[in-house]
Amino acid sequence: MKTVTVYLVRHGKTWFNTFNRMQGWSDSPLTEDGIADAKRAGQVLRNITFTHAYSSDTMRAQNTAKTILEANLNSAVPLTVTPFFREQFYGYYEGQDSAESWYAVGAPHGAPSLKAIIDQYGVDASKDFMHDADPFGAAEDAITYWTRLQKGFKLLRADNQNGDNVLLVTHGTTIRSIVDKFGKTDGFKVTDSPKNGSISRIALTDEGIKVLSFNQLKLEPGLLK
Length: 225
Prior knowledge:
- This protein is about 40% helix and about 15% strand.
- It contains eight helices and six strands, in the order βααβαβααααβαββ.
- It has helices at about 15-20, 30-45, 60-70, 100-105, 115-120, 125-135, 140-160, 170-185; strands spanning about 5-10, 50-55, 80, 165-170, 200-205, 210-215.
- The chain has a six-stranded mixed sheet, with helices on both faces.
- A hairpin with a 2-residue loop joins β5 and β6.
- α2 packs across α3 (about 60-70) and α5 packs across α6.
């Protein structure tokens, strides 16, 4: 059975993260803390041999990925940039205050925060609620979002062989969505968003996707080779 291990890293902290702004397809630079997040992840992953490296096409993800690859002792692979693993598109709410946005999206459903929406309805429902609340109808709903991500998984499967390790730098809601969809039955909970620069791991197999870990700032000793 073919198994490809994907190391999912959330990009380093940005200015929009600092200001608690909605940041999906919109982009803001890494802060000094964000650069430090990327360097920390690079040190944690420096001994992993990657066969391929990918990032979202946002600059925050690309710059994080380049920093990680610069620290790697074993891999000299080019970075493949793809829109398939870009963050969820928040439409009208891009750049707006996060708490105010999620209140507007969730309050009509009795869930006045993102945490409340996820607890009561799930991560995919937060996408559908935002799409419905967007006066322009531009925000991605769950079907649109997952159609895009499945193209990304197809790319990873096509590029890699059994036993390969892959670096993928992407976004908080994207990692959260993946872990929620494929890791719930194994007890993984996504009440909290993954930290900037944190590492989660999934296995792509012939049977589907299995979540191996979520939101770690370091790896178990057995995974450092």
